[in-house]
Write a structure and sequence with these properties.
The complex is a heterodimer of chains A (227) and B (257). Chain A has 227 residues and is of the alpha/beta class. Chain A contains seven helices and ten strands. By secondary structure, chain B is mainly α. Chain B is globular and about 65 Å long. Classes of the chains: A alpha/beta (227), B mainly alpha (257). At the A-B interface, strand 6 and helix 4 of A face helix 9 of B.
Chain lengths: 227, 257
């Protein structure tokens, strides 16, 4: 599904990603790391928003390394919902539908139902609560049926109580569509509630781990070493 | 101590150097001057020329600034952007007589002789070009500030949903920049109506044809009809207040929403 390898990226003199790589199959994989560790940059490189200096990105066997974001068919849910404020909820959700309109319409109806959005379709984004904005952001990314979905701490701006309530809903929707998901987080509980498998971003490299607990152990050891 | 210095300096200097000259205009208004000016067809022609040329110049400035803001957003490393950026602020530092002379040489008799004896110079079109030259950077600044305030994630999402940079710009960025577009137009318009030097150098000061409010005031002072100059000047102040007022009402509404 996704195979990224040898990703190297620096901003100025600071090397953010050294030799980062990751395989993603039909699963929800949590990519765990502390703030500023390069998780979001890695995600943006997969999406094509940021260009890596070295490395390769293959999606469904196709080399996407040099393709712009609009040719990758990768869903992206950023940290803040980033809804299009000039469009109502329905138009936001349908924004990415360009081809396969019939199939996308079926996905749209299902997503709207599962995320309980039918009553707010005519509303403007500014009229929505934070929770609903995140739901709309997820729906908007899912409806065009992307090859993979990249989620960058999509609930980080929310209260822990709301987050705990929403995570099972999100997981259920993602499982229903059987879409491979790379879920970036720095929260232990969130990663366990969401993910099937785990990886950790450690000093610019990505390592597969068996559990969120192992990921946080690695992060803790690295932090102690650099102190 | 420092606060007292600010108190002691700011208000007196502000009143003396900004408010007092405006008041001096208003108190020098007289009924005869108002009557003569309001019945002078050249005055109304200069009002029409000013508003029409400034609106068209501001519109043109906005169109070009929309293009520049696109490069600012998506192609900041390109040579086109770097060059345009270099020239962007030039009209602010350049004496506007120089701008007028440059326009005269660029679009005058030598290059545009086929348009007539003076090329494009000394026509209303020349007035518009002169106003555009000095107002473009205001519009560009307003749009760049709007673009810089946008959440980059909004554009990132539009790109992953299938938009190329041009589509994202027109479908997502510009519709969210209503406030900046409005500011860009109003700032360009107000800069245009205040322009004198470049307009007079390139557009001339032909009554009814290329005369604008700024050059009308100048002419009336020159021929000694001070009462009419004062009336026209107060008219300019009222027009400027109207523009500034519209801008601030709109900004307040935007801040509230």
């Amino acid at each position: 599904m996704l195979k990224a390898s040898g990703i190297y990226k620096r901003y100025g003199r600071e090397i953010v990603l050294r030799n980062a790589g990751l395989d993603l199959n039909s699963e929800i994989k949590a990519l765990i790391g502390i703030n500023g560790s390069g998780k979001s940059t890695f995600l943006k490189i997969i999406a094509g928003i940021v260009q890596a200096e070295r490395g390769e990105v293959f999606i469904n066997g196709k080399d996407m390394t040099r393709l712009p974001p609009e040719q990758r068919n990768v869903g992206y849910v950023p940290q803040y919902p980033a809804l299009f404020q000039h469009l109502n909820v329905e138009k936001n959700i349908l924004y990415g539908v360009r081809k396969n309109k019939k199939a996308s319409k079926a996905v749209y109806e299902k997503v709207v139902e599962m995320l309980a959005l039918s009553d707010i379709l005519r509303k403007q984004p500014r009229e929505l609560s934070g929770g609903y904005r995140s739901r709309v952001s997820l729906a908007r990314a899912l409806v065009p049926q992307p090859h993979i979905l990249l989620m960058d701490e999509p609930l980080s701006g929310m209260d822990i109580v709301v987050r705990k309530k929403m995570l099972p809903d999100f997981r259920q929707v993602l499982k229903e569509f059987q879409i491979p998901v790379l879920y970036v987080t720095h929260d232990h509980e969130e990663s366990e509630l969401m993910a099937d498998s785990f990886a950790v971003m450690d000093r610019g490299e990505i390592r597969s781990v068996v559990s969120a607990a192992e990921a946080f152990e690695i992060i803790q050891n690295s932090t102690l070493q650099t102190m | 101590m420092s606060r007292n210095v600010i108190h002691a300096l700011f208000l007196p200097l502000f009143l003396l150097l900004i408010v007092f000259p405006i008041l001096a205009l208003v108190v020098n208004l007289d009924v005869e001057g108002i009557r003569k000016t309001m019945t002078d067809p050249f005055f109304w022609a200069s009002v029409k020329n000013t508003v029409l040329a400034a609106a068209l110049a501001a519109g043109m400035a906005l169109v070009v600034a929309v293009g520049f803001a696109y490069y600012h957003l998506f192609h900041r490393q390109s040579l086109i952007y770097k060059l345009a950026n270099l020239f962007n602020d030039l009209p602010i530092a350049l004496p506007h007589t120089v701008a007028g002379l440059a326009l005269l040489l660029a679009f005058g008799r030598k290059t545009m002789g086929f348009l007539g004896e003076t090329g494009a110079a000394f026509t209303l079109f020349a007035v518009i070009l002169a106003m555009f030259f000095v107002s473009y950077s205001m519009a560009a600044r307003a749009l760049i500030s709007g673009v810089d305030q946008m959440e980059p994630e909004v554009i990132d999402v539009a790109r992953t949903l299938g938009d190329n940079p041009v589509q994202a710009y027109f479908k997502v960025v510009l519709p969210l920049m209503g406030e900046s577009l409005f500011s860009g137009f109003v700032l360009g318009f107000s800069r245009s109506i205040s322009e004198f030097a470049a307009v007079i150098m390139f557009g001339g000061n032909l009554p009814a044809r290329t005369q604008v409010l700024a050059s009308y005031v100048f002419t009336k002072v020159e021929v000694g009809e001070l009462d009419m100059a004062v009336t026209a000047a107060v008219f300019c102040v009222a027009l400027s207040c109207l523009i500034v007022g519209a801008l601030s009402v709109r900004r307040n509404r935007y801040a509230e929403s």
